[in-house]
Design brief:
- It is built from 9 helices and 9 strands.
- With about 300 residues, it is of the alpha/beta class.
- It has 2 domains: about 80 residues, CRISPR-associated endonuclease Cas1, N-terminal domain (Ribosomal Protein L15, Chain: K, domain 2); about 180 residues, CRISPR-associated endonuclease Cas1, C-terminal domain (Four Helix Bundle (Hemerythrin (Met), subunit A)), CATH 1.20.120.920.
- A hairpin with a 6-residue loop joins strand 8 and strand 9.
- The radius of gyration is 20 Å and the shape is flat.
Length: about 300
Amino acid sequence: MLSGRLGLDKARIPHGDRHGLLWLDRGRLEVESGCLRFVTAGGGELAAGDYQIPHQGVSIVLLGPGSSVTHDALRLLARHGCGLAAIGEGAVRVYTAPPLMPDSSAAARAQVTLWADRETRMEVARAMYAMRFDEIVRTRDIEVLRGREGARIKESYRLAAERYGVPWRGRDYDRAAPDSADLANQAINHAATTMTAAASVAVASIGAIPQLGFVHEDSGQSFVLDIADLYRHDITLDIAFGAAKEAMTKPESVDRLVRRRAARLFRRKSVIPSMIDRIKTLLRLSGSDGGENSHDDGRETG
């Protein structure tokens, strides 16, 4: 049995222990004698071995590349309310996230209550802006807030390009032909996708409602996009422009470089645990600390 908090040894298995996130890759998740086990030959985050998984103390299993899962394992996870999401390397993609069926509806109820009232919905939107830019905007007009956000992001693009020495002629994105954009814009598109995947995991983990956003409105993933945007001006741009810089000298696709860099930064900066803490703060759930202690604001510059 694995030792440590929630039955997990952090030196052996990457795990956001406060939130019950368990990362597994390159192995087989199965059931033996009524116990959930993960068998791996190594090559990923885990050394080769046969690990017993304490699923009753885990909220969600994040199953990475090179892994398989048996029907019995899915049945056992469902019986004990433990979710499973198939993810890309380092959670830079999320391919499936079955309903988590959390024991408490507190997050969903809090979100609906705040979203349903125009005044509190605007308060949450302003809190999101303050988290991103350390500035409190007093406006009660969401369009004004979006305009301020757009201006700040435009400047963030310019500064990030300057910091990494990447040519920048402004944001240019054609949804019909995404590969027609220049290197930096392609990298931003790919980086935004990785951050959306991480936010999907965070929103699903806490049992919040993806469709009810406070800044975004039309998308079925509006709240996911809200949370992803909390990291857009710093981590997303560090991923994008850092990968674009690498792509200028390496014979690899910018998409692959973005994924690799994102996986590294997600783990080093505890992005998903930070997202979960910030969701708790925004939804005014008790016991939240805002995630400020778990979020590394340092930037990777190489």
